[in-house]
């Protein structure tokens, strides 16, 4: 989910494992030569979701990679299946108030334009079952990014 800390925690885990971090949002922007807000504005969400699936499938075969996906990649079951096949998946969760607090002041998330509180609540409701496929779910509320990374690594290493 947006603002739960995927990019931040992904970087910490990649550094700890000596892996390469691929941030899917950055990869989509690189492949498309446009920012995500530009893509939403000029081509719409469906176009962005196609680009997101294509970018995901282009990186999943790589080894030694921590992939920080976009928050909405789970909207397509095919993407979830590809992530499970391609690796080990951690889903980060947070409540609406924490997410709003974290994303406030960042205009880079087009789906949150307008009433951010209402949008976050609505998206959380729509996606509440979408993260259950993950190998581990981690509540990030009340945990620092370092603590979240350590928790994920403990599960990953078993
Ligand atoms: N555990 C945490 N506690 C408090 N703040 C956090 C935590 N993890 C990340 N943050 C902060 O929350 C904000 C959003 O984090 P980040 O960009 O990593 O989220 P994201 O899940 O990648 O979001 P998106 O899906 O939009 O890419 C950043 O300002 C980051 O510093
Ligand atoms: O949760 C979402 O649907 C999104 C999250 C971001 O990471 C971006 O991928 C984009 O803003 C959409
Ligand atoms: Mg991110």
TrEMBL record:
It catalyses: shikimate + ATP = 3-phosphoshikimate + ADP + H(+). Catalyzes the specific phosphorylation of the 3-hydroxyl group of shikimic acid using ATP as a cosubstrate. InterPro entries: P-loop_NTPase (IPR027417), Shikimate/glucono_kinase (IPR031322), Shikimate_kinase/TSH1 (IPR000623), Shikimate_kinase_CS (IPR023000). It is an enzyme of class 2 (transferase). Its main location: cytoplasm. Its EC number is 2.7.1.71. The keyword S-adenosyl-L-methionine does not apply. Mg(2+) binds at residue 7. Pathway: Metabolic intermediate biosynthesis; chorismate biosynthesis; chorismate from D-erythrose 4-phosphate and phosphoenolpyruvate: step 5/7. This is Shikimate kinase. Substrate binds at residues 25, 49, 71, 127. Monomer. GO terms for biological process: amino acid biosynthetic process; aromatic amino acid family biosynthetic process; chorismate biosynthetic process. SUPFAM superfamilies: P-loop containing nucleoside triphosphate hydrolases (SSF52540). It comes from Paenibacillus solani. ATP binds at residues 3-8, 109, 143.
């Amino acid at each position: 989910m947006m603002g739960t800390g995927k990019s931040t925690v992904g970087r910490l885990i990649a550094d700890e494992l000596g892996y390469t971090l691929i941030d899917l949002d950055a990869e989509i922007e690189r492949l498309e030569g446009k920012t995500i807000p530009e893509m939403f504005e000029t081509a719409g969400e469906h176009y962005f979701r196609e680009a997101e699936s294509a970018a995901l499938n282009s990186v999943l075969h790589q080894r030694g990679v921590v992939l920080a996906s976009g928050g909405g990649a789970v909207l397509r079951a095919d993407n979830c299946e590809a992530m499970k096949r391609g690796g080990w998946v951690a889903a980060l969760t947070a409540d609406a108030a924490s997410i709003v607090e974290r994303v406030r002041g960042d205009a880079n998330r087009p789906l949150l334009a307008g009433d951010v509180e209402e949008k976050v609540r609505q998206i959380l409701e729509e996606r509440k079952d979408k993260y259950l496929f993950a190998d581990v779910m981690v509540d990030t509320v009340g945990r620092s990014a370092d603590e979240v990374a350590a928790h994920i690594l403990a599960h990953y290493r078993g």
